[in-house]
Design brief:
Elements lengths: L4 E7 L13 H6 L9 E8 L6 H10 L15 E6 L2 E7 L4 E3 L29 E9 L2 E8 L8 E5 L4 E6 L5 H11 L16 H8 L1 H8 L18 H4 L6 H16 L4 H13 L1
Protein name: DUF4316 domain-containing protein
Length: 282
């Protein structure tokens, strides 16, 4: 079973709207001034009995103003919006009567979409109506922070682009850094290369050709082994070379002496010393 509700709308406290305050509906009509939700703010929302009239709603508020009522006493130029049995009707509070305003909740069509004064806006998939409470200009485009008109700050804000597309579905901190980053991501969506565009893995010889002469020369001067032209400076030695046992330095020295003696046709130092010792014995 649906609950019947009503909402009280009063003119926003803006200098340009002061001349509309406490004016009768006939006076505004004579000057062709429309009564539209963009000039109003919701000061209260509550429940009512099914079938109640705007006169009864006003009387109840006058007799006992709710503690969370944010406006002044209901008077001429205010608007009462009654939602009874699924039907929503807006009534302009006139001097001694109520005038139905069928276009009160209608958002004027505009080529630029939302504006900083948009109110009474319906967001697809969300209940109630929303109004713009802040906006930001990024890269030549406007983005709007929408607040729920019935529940105010008790409901998370929603961020829309100027065409009404939801960019951030729920934030309590307005246009903070996180929201701004999401807007940037929307303006510049990341592009993913298809598998056809991804470069295949190159072999060493292919890297040799791609590196360029200057990079090849620089890399060759720093490498520790001969698998050097692969795009990586100073590759480590192959594992099989690392695991070889260390050789004795003294053994290497004796081996080198023998090699030198063999090449030069001379005897090793040990042999010469042995011959001298033999001569001394004789």
């Amino acid at each position: 079973m649906s609950t019947s509700q009503f909402a009280v709308y009063q003119l926003k406290r803006k200098p340009e709207l002061r001349n509309f305050l406490y004016r009768t509906y006939e006076e505004l009509a004579q000057e062709q001034i429309p009564v539209q939700v963009g000039n109003y703010e919701q000061v209260y929302i509550g429940t009512m009995k099914p079938g109640e009239t705007p006169e009864q709603v006003k009387k109840n508020i006058d007799q006992r103003q709710p503690h969370n009522y944010k406006g002044h006493a209901i008077s001429t130029s205010d608007v009462l919006v009654l939602n009874d049995n699924g039907e929503t009707i807006a009534y302009y509070v006139n001097k001694n009567s109520f005038v139905v305003v069928p276009d009160f909740m209608r958002i004027p069509s505009s080529s630029c979409g939302l504006t900083k004064n948009t109110a009474g806006y319906e967001i697809s998939g969300k209940g109630g109506t929303w109004e713009v409470v802040d906006y930001i200009l990024m890269e030549g485009k406007n983005f709007f922070l929408m607040e729920h008109e019935q529940h105010g700050k008790d409901v998370a804000y929603v961020v829309l682009d100027q065409n009404g597309k939801v960019l951030v579905d729920g934030t309590y901190n307005g246009f903070d850094d996180e929201v701004k980053q999401k807007i940037r991501d929307y303006l510049h969506p990341p592009t993913q290369d298809s598998p056809e565009k991804q470069k295949p893995k190159l072999e060493n010889w292919q890297k040799y050709l791609e590196n360029g002469e200057y990079l090849r020369s620089a890399e060759m001067t720093e490498e520790a082994n001969y698998n050097m032209i692969d795009g990586l400076n100073n590759n480590a030695a192959p594992k099989k070379e690392k695991k070889r046992p260390k050789e004795s330095v003294l053994a290497k020295l004796h081996q080198k002496e023998k090699e030198i003696a063999r090449r030069s046709g001379k005897k090793a130092m040990q042999e010469i010393m042995g011959q001298d010792m033999e001569r001394a014995k004789k």
